[in-house]
User: What shape does this take?
Amino acid sequence: MLLRLLIARLGNRADAEDALQDMWLKLDQNTPQSPVQPIAQPAAYLYRMAANLAADRRIAAVRAGARDTAWLNVQPGAEEQPTAERTLLGRERLARIEAALAAMPPRMSAALRLYRVEGVPQKQIAERLGMTVSGIEKLLRRAANEIHMHEVADKAELVDLHRLPDEGKSHLGK
Assistant: This one.
């Protein structure tokens, strides 16, 4: 009778059997060691326990479905995935930034890493490095300028690499 009730409430036999097994385990674990007053209506107690268990499982299933749907909605689609070209360009840019960081003075690169990568507030960076907050602000501004200048210089070198040796010279005079 309990299995039929659970099948009706949960919609399929497999879930109902799992719920019935859970019910048995709960009953087995809750048997008191000391004598307790017996349950006046054991059948009603079991039916109420089965109904509550079925309701809990339905609620959990709805929540799991909502959670899974929300997770799927925030996943990037195929059109949002980076192309091979964008991936290569991103890696090149990362290499340029890492080269710029390596060329910076240690205190400047440390402040930039702490602020931009680790998300440490400027006040805490100032305390760690023994500087003032305005000094950290200036250091971060200089670091950003150095990265920008490093990228500009690298782009200019790339343009020169892709030029033909005699490009820009007039061929009319030959």
The chain has a mean pLDDT of 84.
